[in-house]
């Protein structure tokens, strides 16, 4: 094509032919939203388009908005450009966006992971000519072990804490990571308590997804009530006064950043479990290969390193683009959002 089908400008990822943005970071007239995390679904757009299971999520977060929901694979055409949404596997209702015009196909992944976590709709490779991929964990050092092993470790940790009379406090982002944790915690060990932010979001999702019973932590819940049980809370709640009623307690974080030595110490937690909602190094490379693409655009992550590897080692036509999502892409801040 003479002109790129999608371009990056100061508002977001833009399709000029359709006059539509994808995951815009500034208010626009029409925006396709890949998923509910705050760095991808911003307030202020006049019209939102997203996967239908994501509609209640972004309404919960953004309030009274004009939004239309689409099924997986459902095509919709705007000024001759055909769009469709396909599972990204990142969190529940997370999408890749396929864009086609005059035989040219581009795919924007949003955020994604390739391991089926048993709750989010599993990642689906989509054939295209140009693939726009995140690379949050685009270094060879990031290679995830199967989640079954991670959850075995988490549940063993919880059981050990309970045997010692301690409460377990497990940190995970209130949308996505928290529900993944809830889905795979062993409730035979004890009860699951939740921070209000986690409980509110989980209740929004219960209509479309299955989770175990949880109990919201309130002032009425005593230290004796929660002793030996497990609490799921967002990382931002760490250090709050509410945690005092858990004493004695043990803390842990479930994050891809736990791969790095020192991450646990910097967060002042007792235990780290490597569990990410993003693709690891192999997942990124396998995904790119599966698309059959010729061109790759890397965004938000180790963009320069990853694109250089794609060019010099694998022969792709690869380049980088900056996005506002990068503001959340560090160990200290990205991990607070959707790691």
Describe the structure.
- The chain has about 350 residues and is of the alpha/beta class.
- The chain has 2 domains: about 5-140 and about 275-335, Metallo-beta-lactamase, Chain A, CATH 3.60.15; about 145-275, Rossmann fold (3-Layer(aba) Sandwich), CATH 3.40.50.10890.
- It contains 9 helices and 19 strands.
- It has helices at about 55-60, 145-165, 175-185, 195-205, 225, 265, 280-290, 305-310, 335, and strands spanning about 5-10, 15, 20, 30, 45-50, 65-70, 75-80, 80-85, 95-100, 105-110, 130-135, 165-170, 190-195, 215, 230-235, 250-255, 270-275, 295-300, 315-320.
- The chain is globular.
- The two termini are about 35 Å apart.
- Residues about 325-335 have low confidence and may be disordered.
Keywords:
339 residues, alpha/beta, Metallo-beta-lactamase, Chain A, Rossmann fold, seven-stranded mixed β-sheet, six-stranded mixed β-sheet, 9 helices, 22% helix, 24% strand, disordered C terminus
């Amino acid at each position: 094509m003479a002109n790129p089908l999608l371009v990056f400008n100061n508002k977001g990822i833009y399709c000029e032919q359709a006059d539509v943005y994808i995951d815009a970071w500034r208010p626009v007239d029409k925006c396709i939203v890949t998923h509910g995390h705050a760095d991808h679904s911003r307030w202020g757009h006049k019209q939102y388009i997203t996967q239908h299971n994501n509609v209640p999520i972004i309404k919960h977060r953004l309030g009274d908005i004009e939004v239309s929901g689409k099924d997986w694979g459902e095509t919709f055409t705007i000024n001759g450009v055909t769009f469709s949404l396909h599972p990204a596997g990142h969190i529940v209702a997370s999408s890749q966006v396929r864009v086609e015009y005059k035989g040219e196909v581009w795919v924007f992944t949003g955020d994604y992971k390739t391991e089926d976590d048993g709750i989010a709709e599993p990642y689906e490779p989509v054939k295209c000519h140009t693939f726009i991929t995140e690379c949050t964990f685009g270094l060879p050092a990031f290679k995830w072990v199967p989640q079954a092993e991670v959850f075995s470790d988490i549940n063993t940790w919880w059981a050990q804490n309970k045997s010692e009379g301690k409460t377990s406090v497990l940190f995970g982002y209130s949308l996505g990571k928290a529900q993944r944790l809830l889905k795979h915690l062993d409730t035979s060990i004890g009860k699951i308590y939740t921070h209000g932010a986690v409980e509110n979001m989980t209740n929004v999702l219960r209509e479309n997804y299955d989770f175990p019973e949880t109990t919201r932590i309130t002032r009425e819940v005593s230290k004796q009530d929660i002793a030996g049980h497990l609490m799921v809370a967002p990382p931002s709640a760490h250090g709050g006064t509410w945690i005092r009623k858990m004493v004695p307690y043990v803390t842990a974080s479930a994050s891809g950043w736990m791969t790095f030595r020192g991450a646990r110490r910097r967060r002042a937690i007792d235990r780290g479990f490597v569990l990410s909602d993003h693709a690891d190094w192999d997942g990124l490379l396998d995904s790119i290969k599966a698309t059959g693409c010729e061109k790759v655009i890397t965004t938000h992550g180790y963009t320069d390193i990853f694109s250089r590897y794609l060019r010099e080692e694998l022969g792709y036509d690869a380049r980088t683009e900056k996005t506002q999502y990068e503001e959340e892409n560090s160990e200290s801040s990205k991990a607070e959002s959707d790691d």
